[in-house]
Amino acid sequence: MAATITGVITALLLLLNTLILIGPMMLVALLKVILPGSRARQVCSSVVMAIAETWAEICKAIFALMTPTQWEIRGVEDLRGDTSYLVISNHQSWVDIPALIQAFNRKTPYFKFFLKKELIWVPFLGLAFWALDYPFMKRYSKAFLEKYPHLKGKDLEITRQACEKFQGIPVTVVNFLEGTRFTAAKHDNQQSPYRHLLKPKAGGVAFVLAALGDNLDAILDVTILYPEGAPPGFWDLLCG
């Protein structure tokens, strides 16, 4: 019962943080669309990023206040906020996102995730994703592409166009190379040669490298480990 109460209060605090900050973020994002000139748009992008970083720091403070979760983070001592990184990581749970925020927020430029197109309809967060210029990916199954072959490569074209927006500004591009969350069933179905990973989908990363080129300072190779058995769900994190 105590864990459930903790989860509800934590969720409400996170929602309140989101509701307070999404208004200013959307206002600046709309200005970015309206104002002429690349310089004005870059300034608006910087302000949107600053609001997002503030939101993430408050989320971190809420988790620290409400839950006993301990994060052990290694290797972030020399990171900078004025350069661009490509983060590649394993993917097991929605908790991976708060884990990456714990590790990198205000140590690197704010994240750009490649998201499934359906996530734009998530209340509040979908608008925030749009304001932050997150690229929305439309993934097609092999069977679908066989029926509509003209759409082959469309998802990679979207990746290329999204990366062009990142030219000239520091950015941290996050890519889960497996393309989906790891499960034992998916691992067996793929007959993956890796013990703890699915087969990588390297096309998106190839386009990021090609589009950003010399703007990238480094690739950050991230391993997320949950030491107590199965990866926790997001509700588990909220409950402590």
Provide an overview of this structure.
The chain has 240 residues and is an alpha/beta fold. 49% of the residues lie in helices and 10% in strands. The two termini are 12 Å apart.
Describe the structure in brief.
The protein has 240 residues and is α/β, with parallel strands linked by helices. Helix content is 49%, strand content 10%. β3, α4 and β4 form a beta-alpha-beta unit.
What percent strand? 5-15%
The count of strands amounts to 6
Mean pLDDT score: 85
Radius of gyration: 19 Å
Discrete helix count: 9
- Relative helix content: 40-55%
Output the helix-strand order: HHEHEEHEHHEHHEH
Primary descriptors:
alpha/beta; 240 residues; 9 helices; four-stranded parallel β-sheet
